[in-house]
Design goal:
Layout lengths: L1 E6 L1 H5 L3 H10 L3 E5 L6 H7 L9 H8 L5 E6 L3 H9 L12 H5 L8 E3 L3 H11 L2 H8 L1
Antiparallel strand pairs: 1-3, 1-4, 2-3
The chain binds adenosine-3',5'-cyclic-monophosphate.
């Protein structure tokens, strides 16, 4: 099973991408695709459209377009729920000890990493960043 993670601009800017990737591999995930991208405003607005009525939406879009981020397709058994456990709660201050956000994130908005919250959203979010042909081309 696959899910989508995005190492966010705060973590890339702080030089934590390598540590986060190692953490995810040690948690049993295989990286199936990855790409360093700087989101445009329309891309970030579309990706987070589900949050458009929230008070933090404008700030979230500004943050997600502030620098490069690293979307990646991760695979392992029970990938969606396992990745959410491994990254921890949205707010790093509330995330469990040893989780990615507790270790590497700054605050509730600049929280280091995104993970899909359902199998349905994982499929949509993987498709947002990685065309099927690119995924097939990587792994033959
Ligand atoms: P993510 O898992 O990418 O999903 C939505 C994002 O919105 C979340 O991580 C945070 O970056 C951000 N977010 C969620 N809640 C808040 C909040 N209360 N204040 C600011 N940003 C938030």
């Amino acid at each position: 099973m696959q899910t989508l993670a995005i190492v966010k601009p705060d973590a890339i800017g702080a030089g934590k991408a390598g540590k986060i990737l190692a953490h995810l591999e040690e948690a049993g995930f295989t990286v199936r695709a990855a790409r360093l991208v700087k989101l445009t405003r329309p891309e970030a607005e579309a990706f987070y459209a589900v949050h458009r009525e929230r008070p933090f939406y404008g700030s979230l879009v500004a943050f997600m377009t502030s620098g490069p981020c690293l979307p990646m397709v991760l695979e392992r058994e029970d990938a969606v729920s396992h990745l959410r456990t491994v990254i921890g709660a949205t707010d790093p201050a509330e995330a469990a000890e040893g989780t990615v956000r507790r270790l590497y994130a700054e605050n509730k908005e600049r929280n280091g990493i995104h993970a899909s919250d359902s199998a349905e959203n994982a499929a949509r979010e993987i498709g947002f960043f990685f065309p099927q042909a690119e995924l097939e081309g990587l792994w033959g």
